[in-house]
Design goal:
Chain lengths: 421, 221
């Protein structure tokens, strides 16, 4: 056994706990998880059946954590995991799973398959079988300040621009304010108008905020690649900055996995709760709406639909909030089939969008959303995740539907904000 | 009393049953302990929803498929329901089975009409045949299936068929058929803890974990 293979298997062993054992024990190979999976549904290839993507982990569990399996391996049953197995499973664990979580909600015995994929990636990456693009992003982020390289200059330029445009001051590293805002690299690089939007909305609502120069980045490639050490380092950066500034809370931006990483995995990664709250920006905006602090004027009259980011809705529980806000500013808001908790993934989540090897598969998988969009024929798609936003634009262009506009919900709200109120 | 199969029947009803019961109960305890000792780390992220409440609720709510899914795998869903209900009725409401349970734990309940019990058994058998058909012909299910899946299928259908044959004296020596029915049920009991049949116990844990993980985040399950 090679050193890296052994490291991978050790990392995988660390992931096996009572829930995992109860899930594998309960699986009756009914195959219903396949119906939930966008990759199976759009390709029809049985290898994409979600529970099958976990077969190596299941084998390890059966071999080492059950009495019968241990006896069986003595007489040569239950093959050990090999390097070839890991190579074969790379595509199944990284390319054809966005960790969207639909299978977890469908499994009749209740297996949280998505959570097990997250765990299996810990073993895969420790064994050196993670996609090169994610490894590169992890290196850029841990050595620098963002997975896309150094975005400091770009961020400062965008802040300067937002200040000039709105006349509202945005201060870096200001202690004692209500919130520290963190951003998705995608927002800094592609959708910087979010800064203008936040500046105006928060001014109206009387919310004070700042950005940390040392920890402005929200994304966390560690939770996508499956590397707890990387994930912990990146969460710790945000925690140190927020606790150093003494803010009341950190606003998790329109980014799916960033919310999972900071709000749910983060405290467990660093081993303690934070001294501040984490709130998703859409949760906060809906709270401001409920408190009467978010006032809008007029409505978008175009035909608008909403795309639910998996990590924020299905796996994050933020479902009603965006709809409350959509109704405030969209006169012709129409939902697609399966909208809400059972929405289909944009096909780019869980690191799949950054993985070049998965490009063809991703374009195929998008056919599901394409059909759903065609049915409601929107002029605009609104979402609350910058990476969904990026993926939707890329996919709409690829599928010849780029006449449809894509917009972040915070930006849409800012467009109809009543600055005089 | 010269039936050559009488001794076999007596063994099956006496020592055979006791052995099978001991292995089943001991095996289930072992398997459940095997799972629980692995533990799980305490979640220190502040909860948004009620993890325990939703975990407990999900044990029940997951018995109903989400809207629009049945049409994609009708045989698996409908066959699954018919099999489970049919098997439960045939097992729990036949007079002789109730007497057996009463002898063991002292609790009994009224038996159902024989026509109901036999129809339930027949439906369960038909459902199992349909489920085997989809396992063999559907590419997803065929790819997922291994020896264990087919072995468990045989172990499950055998006592249903043999019980039906023995009770109705359809063919073979009735004493032999009854002995075979009991022996096949005992094989099922022995295999229970060491095969996917264990899902009948651990689904409660799996659904609880699933519901509590989602519930903690305030997300649906």
């Amino acid at each position: 056994m090679t050193a890296t293979l052994e490291r991978g298997i050790n990392a995988l062993r660390e992931q096996i706990d009572a829930p995992v054992a109860s899930f594998f024990t309960s699986c009756v190979s009914c195959g219903l998880c396949a119906e939930a999976c966008i990759f199976f549904r759009e390709t029809g290839d049985p290898k994409y059946t979600p529970i099958r993507k976990l077969d190596l982990m299941r084998r390890l569990w059966a071999r080492e954590y059950t009495l019968l399996g241990r006896l069986g391996s003595l007489i040569g049953l239950n093959r050990a995991i090999t390097e070839e197995d890991l190579t074969e499973w790379e595509e199944l664990v990284y390319d054809s799973c966005t960790m969207c979580g639909r299978c977890t909600l469908i499994c009749p015995v209740g297996n949280d398959i998505t959570m097990m994929i997250r765990k299996m990636r810990e073993g895969m990456s420790a064994a050196g079988h993670a996609p090169v693009e994610l490894i590169g992003a992890a290196e850029r982020h841990t050595d620098g300040s963002s997975p896309m390289g150094d975005l400091h200059k770009a961020l400062h330029a965008h802040v300067k621009h937002a200040v000039a445009e709105t006349g509202i001051e945005i201060e870096f590293d200001k202690p004692g304010v209500d919130y520290m805002v963190i951003l998705s690299a995608q927002e800094v690089a592609e959708f910087p108008d979010i800064l203008t939007a936040m500046a105006r909305i928060f001014k109206q609502a009387g919310v004070t905020w700042t950005i940390s120069d040392a920890a402005y980045e929200a994304t966390n490639v560690g939770v996508q690649i499956g590397n707890r050490d990387v994930a912990r380092t990146l969460v710790q950066r945000v925690v140190d900055a927020a606790e150093g500034l003494g803010v009341k809370g950190v606003i998790s931006p329109e980014c799916g996995h960033a919310y999972q990483a900071l709000r749910w995995e983060g405290p467990n990664l660093i081993g303690r709760p934070y001294n501040f709250d984490v709130v998703h920006i859409i949760e906060l905006l809906d709270q401001l709406r409920a408190d009467g602090k978010l006032k809008t004027k007029g409505k978008d009259e175009t035909r608008v639909t909403f795309h639910d980011p998996c990590q924020i809705n299905r796996r994050g529980g933020i479902n009603r909030e965006p709809r409350n806000l959509m109704k405030m500013v969209a006169a012709n808001f129409i939902e697609t089939d399966d909208a809400g908790t059972m929405n289909w993934c944009c096909s780019g989540g869980g690191g799949v969008g950054a993985n070049e090897r998965a490009e063809g598969l991703r374009f195929k998988a998008f056919n599901r959303k394409k059909k759903q969009f065609e049915k409601v024929a929107p002029e605009k798609i609104v979402t609350m995740c910058a990476y969904c936003h990026h993926t939707l634009e890329e996919q709409l262009e690829e599928h010849g539907m780029d006449e449809i506009e894509v917009q972040g919900l915070t930006e849409l709200l800012a467009e109809y904000l009543d600055d005089q109120a | 009393m010269n039936n050559p199969y009488f001794d076999l029947l007596m063994w099956a009803r006496g020592p055979g049953f006791n052995i099978a019961l001991a292995i089943m109960v001991g095996g289930i305890v072992l398997r459940v302990v095997e799972i629980i000792v692995l533990g799980r780390k305490k979640d220190v992220a502040p909860a948004k929803g009620n993890a325990v409440g939703q975990g407990l609720r999900t044990i029940f709510t997951r018995s109903v498929p989400r809207e629009g899914l049945v049409q994609f795998a009708p045989i698996t869903y409908i066959g699954g329901y018919i099999f489970h209900i049919g098997f439960a009725v045939a097992f729990l409401f036949l007079g002789a089975h109730i007497a057996l349970v009463e002898g063991l734990i002292g609790i009994g309940w009224p038996a159902a009409n024989r026509a109901i019990v036999e129809s339930a058994a027949a439906l369960a058998v038909l459902a199992l045949i349909a489920l085997l058909y989809t396992r063999l012909t559907d590419p997803v299910r065929r790819a997922l299936s291994g020896f264990g899946d087919y072995f468990v299928w045989m172990l499950t259908i055998a006592p249903l068929v043999l019980g039906y044959v023995a009770v109705n004296k359809l063919f073979g020596d009735p004493t032999l058929m009854m002995a075979l029915h009991i022996l096949s049920a005992e094989l099922l009991m022995i295999a229970f803890p060491f095969t996917k049949l264990m899902h009948a116990v651990t689904f409660v844990m799996a659904r609880y974990y699933n519901g509590s993980i989602q519930g903690r985040k305030g997300a649906e399950s």
